[in-house]
Structures are given as structure tokens and as C-alpha cells.
Amino acid sequence: MIQVFKAVRNQEGEIIDFVWILNNESSEQQYGDVIGESLLTLNPGVKEVGIFDTFKQVCETGIPDQSERHYVHEQFDGWFYQSTVKLGDGVATTTTDMTTMKQGEVEIRRLKDEIAQQATDKYQMLFNSIDQGFCIIEVLFDEQDQPTDYRFAETNQAFLRQTGLENALGKTMRELAPEHEQFWFDIYAQVARSGEPVRLSMG
Question: pLDDT tens digit string along 30-39?
Fold first, then answer.
């Protein structure tokens, strides 16, 4: 839609409204014959969403504006991209309906979230079904970069059963067992730093 508006000013020269002075065919299909009509009378929603203030600012400063807005007022319900430039004592606007594109973006985000949730659910089901104890830990280092503790970020049901640490999730090993051997902190730090796995046999 291409539209041209003329400013309506009060005695002090302040812009208090705009009136239509030109509409292209696309605009007429939406509005009908509105030449000479008041913008605020026919589309009062422009004040709420900031369009009226944008028109005033562009008209008074001459600085163009490009804005994307969700407009749900009068006969409209959608997303619109609007360019506004000063034209005489008024503004000219070009408005593009972006609703279909926005709806597509929303659907894509929904599908991504759904797929991510499905993957998470499958992971959790597998994670908790294996009979080996399994946990993910975050190694904690002091100011000298020495390992001093580790925090349980994730645990499966087998791990909780085998260790008896029912409340381990989110806790540090020092909180659960203050006398825990430094050996384990050093081993886990070695793996965290190098990325190389370590296998240990415990009798």
C-alpha cells in the first residue's frame, strides 16, 4: 500500500491528526475512498502502536523511518513493514503485509521446539533406562587453576541407586562428602582439560 497524508495542525502549530490525500489501488482495496478523511478517526489504533507518533516525528524532523509492527486494530490483524518519509507538510508511506512470512517463521520455531523436545525426551528415556551408573559433572577449579570439587549436572537412575546419592543433582561432591579423595578431582580435571578418556578398575 502506498499512502500520502497531510498534517492537521492546531492553532499552536502542533500536529494533531493527518488526513489522506492519496491512496494507490492496494490501499483503496483496504480502506475504500478515504481521501480527505481523518487518520485518527478511521484508524485510532495508530496511536496505540506508535504509528501516529512516527508520522509526527518524520514530518517534523524529515528523518525517514522504517518499522515492523504487529497491528491488530480496525480491519487489520497482521504484521506490517512500513517505510515513512516526509512529503511537504505531511508524510508518504509504503506498507508491506508480512503476515504470511511471520506465520511461517512462527511455525518453523514451533517445529524446531517440537523436534528438540522429542530429542530430549528420547535422550532422557535412554539415559534412564541403561543399567550402568552414569553422570555428567562440572569440574570446579580454584584461583590457581587446581581442581577442588565437582558439581553433578546430570545423573541417571542407575547412578543414584548404585551410589545412594539421591539428592546429588546440582550439588557438589564436597557438599555430599567433604572428605572425598583429591585423587578423583585430579582425574576428572585431567579428562576435562585434555579431552582424553580415562578408564579405571575398582576392586
Answer: 788 889 889 9
